Amino acid sequence: MPTAAPAPTEDIRETRLGNGIRIVTERMPEARSVSLGVWVGVGGRDEPAELAGASHFLEHLVFKGTSTRSARQIAEAVDAVGGEMNAFTNREHTAYYTRLPAAQADLGFAILGDVLTDPAFRPPEVEAERHVILEEILMNLDVPEDHVHTLLAEALFPGHPLGREVLGTRETVEAASRDEIADFFAHWYRPRNLVVVAAGHLDHDRVVDALGPTLGAQDGGERPVRERPADAVEPRAVLDDPTEQAHVAMGWRAVDHFDDDRYALMVANQVLGGGMSSRLFQQVREERGLCYSVYSWAST
Length: 300
Description:
Elements (H helix, E strand, L loop, with lengths): L2 E3 L6 E5 L5 E6 L5 E8 L13 H8 L9 H10 L3 E6 L4 E8 L3 H11 L7 H20 L1 H13 L13 H6 L2 H11 L5 E7 L3 H8 L50 H12 L5 H9 L13
Parallel strand pairs: 3-7
Antiparallel strand pairs: 1-2, 2-3, 4-6, 4-7, 5-6
Helix pairs in contact: 1-7
């Protein structure tokens, strides 16, 4: 049976389904829409080396259709009511989300619940999406300001999954079979790794009831076991590319996502290079005119 957890306000509520999925909502009665997301606690660092890019491959494939809906039917259903649906993959999680008019919120619950429990993985669609992802990888290689971040991650976490490109490589994406991707989904997209969040003009109990027949019907699952990277880093990585600009990225190991100093880190990052008034932007670009783009960021 679902159990309710204490919430800081009456408008923010949390329920944990019997199978372990957490559902967190914030009621915003002034809104006219509902945003719904399903966060899966699996990402690029949880893939075996030979299957690098599997999480990102899955992100593309789940919207390609289920046993009862085609990719076109999913897209047209959302567009027809003025909604949007998308997803993204990170090193430690993958997210699927939709935003719809409040009166059409049930459509979002139904579609996300369907694609995350019953993806079809039809072979022709797997092959078509494989080509799309390969083009995405090539696009990253063609854009130095993006590729420099890939090189930085590899240097900061050498030989560790955190240093791998989330997209995977041409070799791993070309080699991944339909069954390997389906097995990765079946193993990791389980209740213990799922969190559902929704905000907008909604009723919490209605959200819980709407997800019961799909996500709530699953069982089992395990969390990925993660190993910390070694302390060693590559002090310098250089790619000589005949372009008109040089792109430089500098990085340091910092605090993890649960360290109390992460808040100080975010403030320091904003001061250093988080906006147009930051020290990097004002000194390097505005006062000295040495570059077009300069910024900093922090990731935990």
